# Entry
Amino acid sequence: MTGMVGSGFPEPTGLASMPEEFPIGPRPYAVTRGRTQPSFHLGVEVLVTALAPQSRPSGFGVQPSTAWLSPEHWAIHRLCPSPMSVAELSALSQLPLGVARILIADLAETSLVHVQSNQNTPDGQPDMRLLERVLGGLRSL
# Structure
């Protein structure tokens, strides 16, 4: 009989049987503390740049504490000393895109990263020139 252990029960198909190329880490909902959406929209093309943590009071009061930030937050922060897209940060940190967006939004709210806003038209629609450049780049692949 295939798939049976000596006791007659099927072999486990859980974590112990997963191949080593699938690293086991914290579940996405644990990393985001159950949140499924970032606090503001972050497109995959938005550029993110790390800022130095501030420990001094700002003009609007004391800077928020960063003690609650997770290792994943700091991993993203370390990855972008120069501008990097949300998609690149997701890939390099090996985090799902949705998780990366939430963590980047957290970092932006604590002034640890600068998020370069999209160049949208006044009615909120994407700039057609940008979309045409992206389409041209995709076609050249």
The chain has a mean pLDDT of 75.
